[in-house]
Specification:
CATH class of the largest domain: Alpha Beta
Oligomer: single chain
Shape: globular
CATH topology of the largest domain: D-Maltodextrin-Binding Protein, domain 2
Largest sheet: 5 strands, mixed
Length: 289
């Protein structure tokens, strides 16, 4: 995988590591996708039972861009209603000045996590967050349809486009008029930045901003990658993909109307749920390179 996305709960490590002498009430803000809020509630229920503390979840919309803007407003205003923020891995530098230093409180558990993620959440020697889970993007594919037409799992974006069109065209000819080849996150938000970074970097176009701070996006390989994606719209991807975030992509995929989907691991269990039309019909592979 080329790009890792981690959601981090600020001060969660301190909450879980040390039970205070008397019970307290806490609030955590989360805008997770799929069944993420349900899973978070289950985790917090276990914590409440063990600690005696009470934790409420403040649910906000799932768009990372909207969340980041709201968090900055709350923190700048000194909002005291939120104790714990569930954040994305890339937000630490912008939020660090208004977050608690967790270094001392978490010294006994930081070794349980990937060093690179701990480093990403350490700003000027201050650890501001710990992982609650770590994400990696994946290519979801309809194994039944690829098998039906003797197609292989694509390992390049061109192979994906070719296979998506092949299966889509044959299925539509057979009467499956609603099937599309590929769905992804095309809305103008942080999720599209993740997708674009994957396309650009896998085509040799750099990573938009390099580790030394150089802006590298203005190059031929990056432009070629984005032109490639532009050509997908209305051919193998529905025109509406330009408004899709994670859940819209999953909605099309899980109803059986896409051959391929780019999404996060949360979609796997939901796709295999008892009521899912695609249960047992799909598999997951690394993103094309």
């Amino acid at each position: 995988m080329k790009f890792y996305r981690a959601f981090l709960a600020l001060a969660v490590g301190a909450m879980l590591a040390v039970a205070p002498a008397r019970a307290v009430e806490l609030s955590i803000v989360s805008g997770d996708t799929g069944n993420g809020i349900k899973v978070l509630r289950e985790i917090l229920d276990r914590y409440q039972k063990r600690s005696g503390n009470k934790v409420d979840i403040v649910v906000i919309p799932p768009s990372g861009t909207d969340q980041f803007g709201q968090f900055r407003l709350w923190l700048a205003a000194g909002n005291s209603d939120i104790d714990v923020y569930q954040t994305d891995v890339i937000w630490a530098p912008q939020l660090a000045s208004q977050l608690v230093d967790l270094t001392a409180a978490t010294r006994d558990i930081v070794a349980e996590h990937f060093p690179s993620i701990i480093q990403s959440q350490t700003v000027n020697g201050k650890l501001v967050a710990l992982p609650i889970f770590t994400d990696a993007p994946a290519l979801y594919y309809r194994k039944d349809l690829l098998d039906k037409y003797g197609a292989k799992v694509p390992t390049t974006w061109q192979e994906l486009a070719d296979t998506a069109k092949l299966v889509m065209d044959k299925e539509r000819t057979a009467g499956n008029k609603d099937l599309w080849g590929f769905v992804f996150q095309g809305n103008a938000y942080e999720g599209l930045t993740c997708d674009a970074l994957e396309w650009v970097r896998s085509n040799g176009g750099g990573q938009i901003i390099e580790p030394n701070g150089t802006v590298s996006i203005n190059n031929r390989q990056a432009a070629a990658a984005l032109d490639m994606v532009k050509g997908w719209i209305g051919t193998i991807a529905p025109p509406g993909v330009l408004a899709y975030q994670e859940e819209e992509s999953r909605g099309v995929w899980q109803t059986g109307n896409a051959v391929f989907m780019r999404n996060w691991p949360y979609a796997y269990a939901l796709g295999n749920s008892e009521t899912s039309p695609i249960k047992g019909k799909f598999a997951v592979a690394p993103l094309p390179a």
